[in-house]
Amino acid sequence: VQLVESGGGLVQPGGSLRLSCATSGFAFNTTYMRWFREPPGKGLEWVSSIDKAGIKTYATSVKGRFIISRDNAKNMLYLQMNDLKSDDTAVYYCSKGTSRGQGTQVTVSS
Prior knowledge:
Elements: E1 2-6, E2 9-11, E3 17-24, E4 33-38, E5 45-50, E6 56-58, E7 66-71, E8 76-81, E9 90-96, E10 99-100, E11 104-108
Parallel strand pairs: 2-11
Antiparallel strand pairs: 1-3, 3-8, 4-5, 4-9, 5-6, 7-8, 9-10, 9-11
């Protein structure tokens, strides 16, 4: 299993970022995928999930602002993040089961 996140960076409040997760080593198209994040000084928190049928769920804190999606042809997972807030600052990870990537840093600051 390989998961490689990208797309993080520094953005101003109200801005947007799109995170990507390149996957390999497993049958992505039938796999339940999730995004987690780890804010500074805090524990890991679940952000969003998408199942093989494309059904999406979101944490209350990001619902209406973030959109999870997948491209099964490319074995890619995405997280479109809009209207970003300082509380969204964290390292973001994509996950398959108990596996996750190295993470990508998102910093929301003016």
